[in-house]
Specification:
Length: 323
C-alpha cells in the first residue's frame, strides 16, 4: 500500500492468488523497461549514451526525450561491440544481452572494459541473474502474460517521488485471448497496448501486475522453456547461422537463415507467428551484421505455453521451408 492511502475492508473479493513471490524482490519494480532506462539516465545525469544499431527504437526515443546524446555502434557476429568503441570519461555504453547469449562473465568483462559506465539490457534474458554493481534492466511482458512491468537493478536513486501505475485498462488483449483462445481476434488491442507503453510516464509497477507476477511458478516456466529450446536446438543447430549456447529460461530460439525474411512470411501463413524484432535496425547501412540479423533471425517461440510436442508440430511446419 502506498503511504497515506486509506485501507478498505470487506466488500467483494478482488483478483488475488495468495502471497506474492516476485522473481527479483531486490530490484526496483517499475512499469516498463523503457522507464527503467529513463530512471538511470535521470538519476545518473547521463548526457551521452552509446547504443548498438541493432536495437529497438524505444531506447533511442527515450534518449531523445531526455536530451541525451545517443551515438550508435555496430556489433559483430558474436553480438559484441566491434573494436573501436571508446567512450569518453563521462559517457556510458548500453549493452544488449541478445537472446541471452552473453553470459555474466562477458557482462563483467565488458563493464570493466568501459570503466563500469555500462547499462546492461537483460530484456531478452529474464532468468539471467544481474551482475553485481551493474545497472541491469529486465522486462516482464516478453516472458509472461502481463500488461506491463519491468525490474531495474541499480544503486542510484531518483530524488523525486514516483506514482504507482494502474494497468486495468491495458488487459483487454490478455483477457480476450485467455477467454477465447484467439490471438488474432485481439491483436488490435495488443498493438494499442504496445503504443500506450511507449508513452507511459515513469511510475512504479502497478498492483495488478505485481499480483499477476507473484502467482507465476518461475522454476516451472524456466524448465519448460529449457526443454522446448533443447528440442529445437537438436533439430536446427546444424542449419543455424548462429553458434548458440543454451541460456537459462530462453526468450526464444534464434534461427538465422540466409533467407529468413521469406521463411518468416511462409510461417505466418501457416499460423506460426515469428516477430520481426527492431525493424529500424533492418535499414542500418553502417551495421551490416545488425542489419542482417534484424532481417533474417527468426525468434522461434519456446515459451512455457508450449510442450515439446508443440515443438515437434512447429518443426514439421518449418522443416519443409528450409530446403
Amino acid at each position: 500500500m502506498i503511504c497515506g492511502e486509506q485501507a478498505e475492508y470487506g466488500g467483494y473479493l478482488e483478483l488475488g492468488f495468495g502471497p506474492a513471490k516476485p522473481r527479483y524482490p531486490g530490484a526496483l519494480a517499475l512499469n516498463t523497461a523503457r522507464n527503467c532506462l529513463a530512471y538511470v539516465l535521470r538519476a545518473r545525469n547521463i548526457r551521452t549514451l552509446h547504443l548498438p544499431s541493432y536495437l529497438c527504437g524505444a531506447v533511442k526515443n527515450t534518449c531523445a526525450e531526455l536530451g541525451v546524446r545517443a551515438t550508435e555502434y555496430p556489433i559483430g557476429q558474436d553480438f559484441l561491440p566491434l573494436p573501436g568503441l571508446e567512450p569518453g570519461p563521462d559517457e556510458w555504453v548500453y549493452l544488449v544481452n541478445y537472446y541471452g547469449q552473453l553470459g555474466p562473465e562477458q557482462a563483467q568483462a565488458l563493464s570493466e572494459r568501459y570503466g563500469r559506465r555500462v547499462i546492461w539490457d537483460n530484456v531478452q534474458a529474464f532468468f539471467q541473474s544481474p551482475c553485481s554493481g551493474m545497472d541491469t534492466i529486465y522486462t516482464c511482458r516478453k516472458f509472461f502474460g502481463v500488461p506491463d512491468g519491468a525490474y531495474l537493478f541499480t544503486d542510484c536513486r531518483l530524488k523525486e517521488p514516483l506514482e504507482r501505475d494502474e494497468s486495468r485498462e491495458r488487459m483487454t488483449h490478455l483477457l480476450g485471448r485467455a477467454d477465447t483462445g484467439s490471438a488474432n481476434r485481439f491483436y488490435g488491442s495488443y498493438a494499442e497496448n504496445e503504443e500506450r507503453l511507449e508513452t507511459l510516464p515513469l511510475r512504479w509497477m502497478s498492483r495488478l501486475t505485481e499480483t499477476l507476477l507473484g502467482a507465476i511458478d518461475y522454476d516451472w516456466a524456466a524448465q519448460r522453456r529449457n526443454e522446448n529450446y533443447a528440442r529445437l536446438a537438436r533439430e536446427l543447430d546444424g542449419v543455424n547461422g548462429l553458434a548458440l549456447h543454451p541460456p537459462a529460461g530462453p526468450y526464444a530460439y534464434p534461427l538465422l537463415l540466409p533467407k529468413g525474411e521469406q521463411v518468416r512470411k511462409a510461417l505466418q501463413a501457416k499460423k506460426v507467428y515469428v516477430p520481426l524484432l527492431w525493424p529500424e535496425a533492418a535499414a542500418a547501412e553502417h551495421d551490416p551484421v545488425g542489419r542482417a540479423y534484424a532481417r533474417n533471425i527468426l525468434p522461434l517461440p519456446v515459451d512455457q505455453r508450449y510442450t515439446p510436442e508443440d515443438m515437434e508440430r512447429m518443426l514439421a511446419i518449418l522443416t519443409p521451408l528450409l530446403g
